[in-house]
Amino acid sequence: MAQRHMPIGYKLVDGKIQLDDSKANVVKRIFQEYASGASLLDIAKAMTAAGLPNANNQPQWYHGTVSKILDNVKYQGDEFYPPLIDKELFEKVQRRRGERCEKLGRNLQLNSASRQSVFSGILRCGECGDVYRKYAEHCGKPTKRTFWKCKRYIHRNKVCCCNSFLTDEQIRSAFLSIANRIITNQKCLDRIPKKEPAVNNFEYIKLDKKIKELEAEGRYSSKELPALVFERAKALYRTSRVDDAAHNTEKMKQAFSGRPPLHGFDEELFQTVIRQVTVHKDEKLTFEFINGLTLEAKY
């Protein structure tokens, strides 16, 4: 599992995700302040004024950054992430966000627990790499329709990405065909992808060389050394991977074992076995499973 997109509040230690106490407290403060009535902008200003580090270790906060944290369901805990926010507080925050969106007449379906689609955060654009989001058209009218569109379809009032739009039903249908393909031939689950080649982490190599030079010179008391060691650890963390393909393959086999062919979309199965879905312009979806296996289907 790649850890390039680990939410703030967590860290990777010996291949396992753990709470990063100082930043976990920042996340808790955000949830508590929002639940108490503070606005996104007020929270962002307070965090910046307090000099608290964001996910990039910079003391700069924006309302959009706060919004993404409040929307992240991983903070409730899952198979990989330990719980950071208790369910009661998380749901209280989502209720308030839902009320605010309704009051402001917003149509965008954000990635919160109460409004989240099973496809939220899963769909990626095969053209620009950005996320797909769900938009509603003709709200309040009989002609209301919803589509998944690349987030960069319209950016700063310009069309920036021309990838396809698609509906929930198209995604469900494509997954159904993929799932039935596996059910009728489960041997394909044993095709564990080759491990990704080691990343040439030039930043780590440069820092490691500098540290060894200082150590060779006997400069163990240098103030520069602890800072370099810390930066080297950060550089290594940014390219860390957890090799869990075999474990996840067994998990997938259990999920598919003994199933008859599906006649309808199974949301629980989708959430169990799918890591990401890439949307391509040629009416094709690439489903990436939790063990790294990829299969394609038309939509």
By CATH's scheme, which homologous superfamily of the domain at 1-114 applies?
A: Putative Large Serine Recombinase, Chain B, Domain 2
Describe the sheet with the most strands: 4 strands, mixed
DSSP strand tally? 10
Order of helices and strands: EEHHHHEEEEEHHHHHEEE
β-sheet strand percentage:
15-25%
Give the C-alpha Rg.
22 Å
Any low-confidence stretches, pLDDT <50, length ≥5?
Answer: 107-115
Structural class: alpha+beta
Helix content: 25-40%
Q: Which topology of the domain at 1-114 does CATH recognise?
A: Hect, E3 ligase catalytic domain fold
Average pLDDT metric = 83
CATH architecture descriptor of the domain at 1-114? Alpha-Beta Complex
Major beta sheet, strand line-up: 3-8-9-10
For the termini, the CA-CA separation is 27 Å
Overall CATH class of the domain at 1-114: Alpha Beta
How many H/I helices? 9
> What is the 3D shape?
globular
GO molecular function: DNA binding; DNA strand exchange activity
Protein name: Recombinase family protein
Domain Recombinase: 7-107
Keywords: DNA recombination, DNA-binding
Description:
The chain has 299 residues and is of the alpha+beta class. Among the domains are: 1-114, Hect, E3 ligase catalytic domain fold (Alpha-Beta Complex), CATH 3.90.1750.20; 202-238. Helices cover 39% and strands 15% of the residues. It has nine helices and ten strands. The protein has helices at residues 21-35, 40-49, 63-71, 87-104, 168-184, 202-216, 224-238, 245-256, 267-273, and strands spanning 10-13, 16-19, 123-125, 132-137, 145-150, 154-155, 158-159, 274-280, 284-289, 294-298. Strand 9 and strand 10 form a beta hairpin. It is globular. The two termini are 27 Å apart.
